[in-house]
Write a structure and sequence with these properties.
Elements lengths: L10 H18 L6 E6 L1 H12 L4 E7 L9 H6 L1 E3 L2 E5 L1 H5 L15 E3 L5 E2 L6 H7 L7 H12 L3 H6 L2 H5 L4 E3 L4 E3 L7 E3 L5 E3 L4 H20 L12 E6 L2 E9 L2 H6 L5 E6 L19 E5 L10 H26 L1
Parallel strand pairs: 1-2, 2-11, 5-12, 11-14
Antiparallel strand pairs: 3-4, 5-6, 7-10, 8-9, 12-13
Helix pairs in contact: 1-2
Length: about 325
């Protein structure tokens, strides 16, 4: 059976929906063995949460290009993204309010490296002050904060006394951004010019954007912190199918922190992966989980599940491991 979920929402919501679906199937089983799951990309993050919370429901998981992190999400959050030639669907504001985007932020803080010294600039991407200082989203950067406060100062004294600061900041605020060149993160590693309007208008106030960011980062961090291997649990066999033949963005080279603030991080450095997920960012290994097999594929991220030979090898390995586990338990009991 297929399980569809709204990938724009917080993943704990999707994990609860998946749990409900699996419970329905599990309760109909005469022999309670659990369910095999094939999880692609973000689906791996959802399935892995169910594995942690309701291990008995799952008989085995094949993780297909499932990222533990994917720092190139910082590009779409800051600059927006194109859908075909349409620039009005995944705007900066739209991507910022897709809660699922934040689940790809790197917990280790690694993304930027100095072009000259090769020094790493590691940041806590779950700290709202980092977002404001570096301007990781134009909705919460320092320029917009200054603009919001300046706008409040221009209100007549009588009006200022009658309105709360929040109501004042709810007025739409305009500010100027440069139009950089950013990577199309759909997996083709091609740099394309982005015609960002010079003068942008956001529908959400600075204050409300900051409140949303703080709430979402906390919720996301709690979710991600719950995904590590627990030695006290008995997990089912897990397998991985991943790509390692397509150049994949690992991070950006910058001329100091000011380049990050200015959004000048289109000079990428690459490594092997599937075009979206680097081969070292994969679930469940990056969370300390052993796997029964790890199958490399030459396919790109979107087409990984069409590599039927790799998928078959992974499933056979899970079944064989399950059989071996039963034989081991039988030998132990005898």
């Amino acid at each position: 059976q297929q399980f569809g979920y709204d990938w724009r929402l917080s993943l704990d919501i999707s994990a609860k929906h998946l749990t409900t679906k699996l419970e329905e199937i599990y309760n109909k089983q005469k022999n309670k063995k659990g369910i095999y799951i094939i999880a692609h990309s973000m689906g791996g993050l959802v399935a892995h949460k169910v594995l942690q919370d309701c291990t008995h429901l799952i008989r085995g998981i094949i993780y297909v290009g499932s990222p533990s992190q994917c720092p190139n999400i910082l590009g779409p959050i800051r600059f927006g993204d194109d859908v075909m030639w349409n620039k009005t669907i995944f705007t900066k504001e739209t991507n910022f309010f897709m809660r699922s985007s934040f689940y790809f932020l790197p917990l280790d803080g690694r993304c930027f490296v100095d072009k000259i010294t090769l020094e790493r600039y590691d940041f806590d991407f779950f700290d709202t002050d980092v977002w404001k200082t570096l301007g990781l989203s134009p909705l919460v950067n320092e320029k917009r904060e200054e603009s919001a406060h300046e706008k409040s100062k221009l209100l007549p004294r009588k009006t200022k006394s009658a309105l709360s600061l929040k109501a004042t900041l709810n007025a739409t605020t305009k500010f100027v951004l440069n139009a950089p060149v950013v990577r199309n993160v759909a997996g083709n590693n091609k740099q394309v010019p982005r015609d960002v309007p010079f003068d942008e208008v956001f529908h959400t106030s600075y204050e409300d954007s900051c409140e949303y960011l703080a709430r979402t980062l906390k919720r996301t961090k709690n979710y991600l912190d719950s995904l590590d291997y627990d030695p006290n649990k008995e997990y089912p066999p897990l397998a991985m199918v991943y790509g390692n033949k397509v150049p994949t963005v690992r991070g950006a080279k910058v001329n100091g922190i000011q380049d990050i603030k200015d959004g000048n991080y289109e000079d990428f450095y690459y490594g092997p992966g599937d075009g979206v997920v680097h081969h070292k960012w994969l679930l469940p290994e990056q969370r300390g989980f052993p796997v029964v097999c790890k199958i490399a594929s030459s396919s790109g991220h979107v087409s990984l599940m069409t590599d039927l030979k790799s998928m078959a090898k992974a499933f056979i390995s899970i079944v064989d491991s399950e059989k071996e586990g039963r034989r081991s338990r039988t030998r132990t009991s005898s």
